[in-house]
Amino acid sequence: MKQILLKYTDNGDNDFETFLQINTHKIFNGRKFLNDDEVNYLLPSDKAEADREAISYAIRRRLFQRYFFSPIEEKLNTGATVLDIGCGPGLWMRDVGLDHPSSTFIGIDVDTTQFPPHDRHPSNVGFLGCNATHGIPFPPETFDFVHISMMCTAFTESQWYQVVRDVGRVLKYNGWVEIIVADLLIKNLGKAGKLVLETCMYPLIIIRPFEVFV
Ligand SMILES: C[S@@+](CC[C@H](N)C(=O)[O-])C[C@H]1O[C@@H](n2cnc3c(N)ncnc32)[C@H](O)[C@@H]1O
Questions:
Q1: CATH 3.40.50.150: does it fit domain 24-207?
Q2: Structure confidence by residue, pLDDT tens digits, 179-210
Q3: Protein residue closest via CA to atom 27 of ligand 1
């Protein structure tokens, strides 16, 4: 069974539609993708993509030498409520959650197949399956910190406006939002790098015009 949120209301009287979904994935060019007309996500949902995401996260962690850039450390130490939109397998939440046991971390993602089992993540970290473009299913002023990372292949321009506006609704006064997106026009590439870039740009430009404004 699959449940989608049709309408979010602040009083908790949310409108859901439940239906039977047999094929959660479809195969394209030998790769598995989410089979959901409501989702624009361009990247696959399979083991190879999970491996790529884990490597990408490890590189960013090494490169940045920190988990976030916002001045939120003090608040995280005393107890903050954090939302990670498009959390994937929750690697970022696992690391920040372990460092900040007084804070609560909630990850939302449309692809619940990536979520780790309950005994494989810190107890202050939780996961919720939902499409962020249907509205963030939390009351106003819930979060001290909202983190959105590597979501440039997930939303159209109008969806970015919608999601960012909704982030403003769920963010507490004086809260912080951190959005990290990659610059896809990488310079000084070698032969293999150029091939990878061309392969990645094809779906972005041809299948859905690339419209990120962040
Ligand atoms: C490239 S991954 C990034 C994962 C993680 N944030 C990171 O930085 O490693 C993008 C994630 O966005 C999720 N996603 C795509 N469209 C979404 C939507 N409409 N609502 C919620 N999550 C979405 C995908 O399932 C995927 O897990």
A1: yes
A2: 998 876 777 889 888 887 777 776 665 555 44
A3: 88
Determine the distance separating the centroid of ligand 1 and the alpha carbon of 154, expressed in angstroms: 6
- Whether 114 shows a pLDDT value over 60: the answer reads yes
CB distance 109 to ligand 1 below 6 Å: yes
- pLDDT at res. 203: 61
Percent of residues in the chain assigned helix, strand, coil, to nearest 5: 35, 25, 40
Kindly report whether the global pTM for this prediction surpasses the value 0.90: no
For residue 85, give the 3-state DSSP assignment. strand
Give the C-alpha separation, 162 to 4, whole Å. Answer: 17
Look-up of token digits 């009083």: 11
Residue spans per domain, the chain: 24-207
Residue 108 Cα, ligand 1 centroid: separation in angstroms? 9
